[in-house]
Amino acid sequence: MSKVIEINNDNFEAEVLGSAVPVLVDFWGTHCGPCRMLKPVLAALAESLGDSVKVVTVDVAANEKLVSDFNISVVPTLIVFKEGKQHSRMVGLKDLHQLTEALAV
Question: What is the pTM of this model?
């Protein structure tokens, strides 16, 4: 069973840029209502797609370097990485279908 992984400045490169499978990165904040609403959607996504993708979250308050590196100004911001490169970017609350489509290989 796949699950959503919390990542940070220290393991971002290994977990995301070095991943052999597409990665959905959720930049979120504790103060953000839509971010909290997105959590069960991300869990369902990780469960339904299994090991074919990776779903990770980044707490913007604790990871200012990543926020700066990826120019995050609004949460939630979702970025799909494929083969270590930014593939697509979405802002705001998304549903399971939209996220599945964004990860389609």
Answer: 0.95
